[in-house]
């Protein structure tokens, strides 16, 4: 059997070391690419590629303008089924951009005292978010209210109620029937196939919508009236009087924290969390609960070792 001499052993050792270094360099490059593409949608910078630990840059990347733009677009696409017809219709995009740029808590997206000004005197139109004592995130922005006013015959804002719960806590429902002869009136919604969602479920769409008031349409004019239905027992036993109490109850729930971390996984991975990722998901919830910022939730997941594996 032939054995290696001293020179052969040295060559073998050097080759092994070089191979290990090359493998480490390739792993770091892959990590830099994944971190950059996932967070800001761009190829990694030279500085990030040369970093020994690309994940150490995550905290600074989630404060960047590129991240703010990309995540705001992601939120707008997630919260709406289709793009808005005008720039003002994409309320979720403008509010998310404002929250991120000003390092606000994620709950401010939905209950912060903000209004919106649409400048139609310039082309293209511009949208400005501003302070408004009567604001409720973007839920009281007229373009959003009109977009999701719904078509309930009596003007009950069922579509609005559903969107508020979908955006805040991720509620997803599928219509039980799309039959053209289906009775969509309040009486029709009492039927067995509809009642569970509209009156009996913890979200009880009709009861929840009752606190939002009614919408009236006259030609192209859309107006909204305050609720006269009185307090409603919804959301698992809470007594809710109006849209502000509804939005506040939603963002103060554990479901809101769960939604935030699911959004983090969907943004970074393009999917919801998997069962084996439970410990990481729990860590995300703890981090989000500590400061209430969506950037923190995303950074927590992106800094996990498994993200670059």
Secondary-structure element order, N to C: HHHHHHEEHHHHEEEEHHHH
| Integer average pLDDT | 91
Low-confidence stretches: none
Q: Give the helix level as a range of percent.
A: 40-55%
Beta-strand residue percentage: 5-15%
Gyration radius (Cα, Å) is: 25 Å
Largest sheet: 2 strands, antiparallel
**Helix/strand class:** mainly alpha
- Major sheet: arrangement of strands: 1-2
Shape: elongated
Number of beta-strand segments = 6
Work out the helix count: 14
The domain count comes to 4
Question: Distance between termini?
Answer: 40 Å
From the structure provided, what is the oligomeric state, counting identical versus distinct chains?
A: single chain
Structural description of this entry:
The protein is mainly α. It folds into four domains: 44 residues, no CATH class; 61 residues, no CATH class; 103 residues, no CATH class; 55 residues. A two-stranded antiparallel ribbon has the order 1-2. Strands 3-4 form a two-stranded antiparallel ribbon. A hairpin with a 3-residue loop joins strand 5 and strand 6. Helix 12 packs across helix 14 and helix 13 runs antiparallel to helix 14. 36% of the residues are buried.
